[in-house]
Amino acid sequence: MITVIAAIAKNNALGKNNDLIWHLPADLKRFKKVTSGHYILMGRNTFESIGKPLPNRTTIIITRNKNYFKEGCLIANSLEKAIELAKDEEQIFIIGGAQIYKETIAKDLADQLDITLVHKEFDADVYFPEIDLQKWKIVAREDFKADEKNEYEYSFLSYQKI
Asked: Which domains does the chain have, with CATH numbers?
């Protein structure tokens, strides 16, 4: 099972200057809970923005740089090779960035989308691809109001491939 997991704004904004635009502790807590114990695949820029392998997860970094190395991480030179490295895993998470999301969805590699939708539009320099509702259906949704810890209203949306 391959799941794309992302936090996106109403206008599909993902980030700016290789960083997140908003801070939603509830989303970070959920991300940790959902991905712990699994393989996480990401592009090099996403890894560089995080800065280190995340605890209790196997990190696979996708980069065209054949000499790239990071202690504690696996390296793959393509999305397909990254998936191949994790092939024995029951659950694989694609965690970004924009190019990796776009490629995963364009090549129809994902089984699920696990989306945190932030109910606001943001100025960004990277965006999540449009979710084609002819190919994906929402199977679960939880809505939350802004509170003292989470500045924006948000929803957790789970999509399954139709």
From this structure: 8-150 (3.40.430.10)
